[in-house]
Write a structure and sequence with these properties.
The complex is a heterodimer of chains A (about 300) and B (about 325). With about 300 residues, chain A is mainly α. Chain A folds into two domains: about 70 residues, no CATH class; about 220 residues, MetI-like (MetI-like fold, Orthogonal Bundle). Chain A is built from 15 helices and two strands. Chain A has a two-stranded antiparallel ribbon. The longest helix of chain A is centred in the first third of the chain and has 39 residues. Chain A starts with a helix and ends with a helix. Chain B has one domain: MetI-like (MetI-like fold), CATH 1.10.3720.10. Chain B is globular. The two termini of chain B are about 45 Å apart. Classes of the chains: A mainly alpha (about 300), B mainly alpha (about 325). At the A-B interface, helix 2, helix 4, helix 6, helix 9 and helix 10 of A face helix 1, helix 2, helix 4, helix 5 and helix 6 of B. Chain B: It is a multi-pass membrane protein. Chain B: Pfam families: BPD_transp_1.
């Protein structure tokens, strides 16, 4: 070993490690750069949507492509929010459906999850497995009979037709069952000795334990219900009952003429509520999505 | 709140009517029917909106029902729908297109998502923000996403084709107005929509993996590549299989996206099976025929998912 390298070794006690650390730092920033560029590519449709919604209709397909609107106009937003076909109505319809679905589904699946997870009864496992098996039935096959059923009982073309089928979620029940099964049985036993009713035990002892899980589920239900286009397409014909995604299609084709500006302004508007929830609960959101997938 | 009353009143009644109280014959501390009270709402809903529709769907497939004739107009026609279906060229070609849309689109999305997930699991600046951006498209409704992509891929003056022309490609694909490119364009769009979702699940699975496995692999002298093939990938197999199956099913069921983007066209080039069924039912009002298509697609999905599960069994690390 030469004297120079010995000196170097004295200055930096572990030359190999510091080199490795430097290489790691370069890799760290390189990865960041590459992934940011890729992320920009994924973000581009959003940027395009926002910028085009703020353009005059003739500027959307200008050559060369305008990424920053010039001039920037709010006409499209004003039209979709105050015009004859107002987003206001679509938003209020969607809000009704979303709120009712969240409350209704949480009520139904919490009760069921508690019965399956915490209580004991004969035939419990068989019933639960049969219940899980229903999730294998493709939504497609249910489409026609549901439509038929709803027309028979007079729920066709009402918001109820969008709410009721979404209440019994197999997936949510499964998650809550796992959750309640992991909760200690002693809590309920102690409350029973104290003379609490079964309802009280559920409501006061076990339900509070499930609060984080219910919050996560509420976010997922919000996302899927707000974005649901297909049920509305099948069940709703009266324009005063349109939900947001169905309403958006009305801006796109108006007597065959395409008015892209309002359609894009409507699209931007439709994303904002989901985006707000996402930004507030970002951590929660991704985690619950992940849990939804991993089971 | 009705349940409260039900539980308390009926409890009160039973204890009141039987004068000699049985000293604790309750096995779990409550009466046998208590769990069933909690189950009433879900059982009713599942019966009404799943079980009954399922069987009536199976039944309608053997009839020639259309809405106009009302419920009295249902007429049993045996296997006629299925006989017609097997001779229907559109049925077979739409299966082919479904296999392309779901069979190519799903593995592509899962592969892109897996690569993103692996990359985004590494340390990097602003990682949370970057992850969130990739995930963003999964939050957008079909129509908003569709509107954007219709304009992005506008054949003459959309930004994508302007960029392609600027890059020296003389006639770029005309995307949604081309018979050859419409379905691939929808596949590309679907990758954009759900790759970030796949990535989030892959990241979650990676973080669940025991670090001891990597330590052991390192001690054994396994390099980065070998660590991937022997530890990381086998660990991801369960979640990847799950994603492949669920997104394949999801894709083969959706018709809303296609209905809005192309209406099955141009020509029949985007008429996948699910859209064909939607069209048969809600455009041509042949609900019996539509239900028959639904039955066939259910059988297809069933066979495929059982097959995939069997393939996966025993391959994963923790199965």
């Amino acid at each position: 070993m030469s004297t120079a390298s010995v000196e170097a070794a004295q200055r930096a006690p572990h030359p190999g490690r510091s080199r490795r650390r430097r290489r790691a730092r370069i890799a760290y920033w390189t990865r960041g750069l590459i992934m940011s560029l890729l992320a920009l590519l994924f973000l581009a449709p959003f940027l395009w949507m926002l910028s085009s919604a703020l353009k005059r209709n003739g500027d959307i397909f200008s050559v060369p492509t305008q990424w920053i609107p010039d001039p920037l106009v709010w006409d499209n937003f004003i039209e979709v929010w105050t015009g004859e076909r107002s987003m206001l109505r679509y938003f209020s319809n969607s809000t009704i459906v979303v709120v009712a679905t969240i409350l209704g589904q949480l009520f139904v699946v919490t009760l069921a999850g508690y019965a399956f997870g915490q209580l004991k009864f004969k035939g419990q496992n068989v019933l639960f497995i049969a219940f899980l098996a229903t999730s294998m039935v493709p939504a497609q096959l249910l489409l026609v009979p549901r439509f038929m059923f709803f027309s028979q009982i007079g729920l066709y073309d009402t918001l109820m037709a969008l709410i009721v089928p979404g209440l019994a979620s197999v997936f949510a029940t499964f998650l809550l069952r796992q959750h309640f099964a992991a909760a200690p049985r002693e809590l309920g036993e102690a409350a029973r000795i104290d003379g609490a009713s079964e309802w009280r035990i559920f409501f006061r002892v076990y339900l509070p334990l499930a609060r984080p899980m219910l919050a996560a589920l509420a976010i997922l239900i919000f996302d899927s219900t707000w974005n649901d286009y297909e049920s509305a397409l099948i069940m709703i014909t009266d324009e005063s009952k349109y939900t947001v995604p169905l309403g958006l299609t009305r801006f796109m084709s108006d007597d065959g003429t395409v008015s892209l500006g309002p359609a894009l302004a409507g699209s931007v508007s439709s994303i904002i509520p989901v985006l707000i929830i996402f930004l507030i609960f970002q951590r929660h959101f991704m985690k619950s999505m992940a849990r939804a997938g991993l089971r | 709140m009705t349940v409260t009353e039900e539980v308390s009143t009926s409890e009160g009644r039973t204890s009141g009517s039987s004068s000699r109280r049985k000293p604790r014959r309750l096995v779990n501390g409550y009466r046998w029917w208590v769990p069933w009270v909690f189950l009433v709402p879900i059982v009713v809903l599942v019966l009404a909106f799943l079980v009954v529709p399922l069987f009536s769907g199976l039944f309608i497939a053997f009839t020639d029902w259309n809405v106009v004739s009302g419920i009295e107009g249902i007429r049993w026609i045996g296997l006629a729908n299925f006989q017609e279906l097997f001779q229907d060229d559109m049925f077979w070609s739409s299966i082919g297109r479904t296999l392309f849309y779901a069979g190519v689109g799903t593995p592509l999305t899962v592969a892109v998502g897996m690569l993103l997930g692996l990359a985004l699991n590494q340390p990097m600046p602003a990682r949370g923000l970057i992850r969130a951006i990739f995930f963003l498209p999964a939050l957008v409704n079909t129509i908003a996403a569709g509107t954007v992509w219709l304009s992005l891929l506008h054949p003459t003056s959309g930004p994508v084709n302007q960029a392609l022309t600027a890059l020296g490609i003389e006639d770029p694909p005309t995307w949604f107005v081309s018979q050859d490119w419409a379905l691939p364009a929808i596949v590309i769009m679907s990758v954009w929509i759900s790759a970030g979702y796949v990535a989030i699940l892959v990241i979650a699975a990676l973080q669940d993996m025991p670090p001891e496995l990597y330590e052991a692999a390192e001690i054994d002298g396994a390099g980065v590549f070998r660590q991937f093939t022997t530890v990381t990938f086998p660990g991801l197999v369960p979640i990847l299989t799950f994603l492949l199956i669920t997104s394949f099913i999801g894709r083969s069921q959706t018709f809303g996206l296609i209905q809005f983007m192309t209406g099955g066209g141009p020509g029949d080039s985007t008429t996948v099976l699910s859209y064909y069924m939607y069209e048969a039912g809600f455009h041509s009002y042949r609900f019996g025929y539509a239900a028959a298509i639904g039955v066939m697609s259910m059988l297809g999905v069933l066979v495929l998912s059982v097959g995939l599960f069997r393939l996966q069994r025993g391959r994963g690390l923790y199965t």
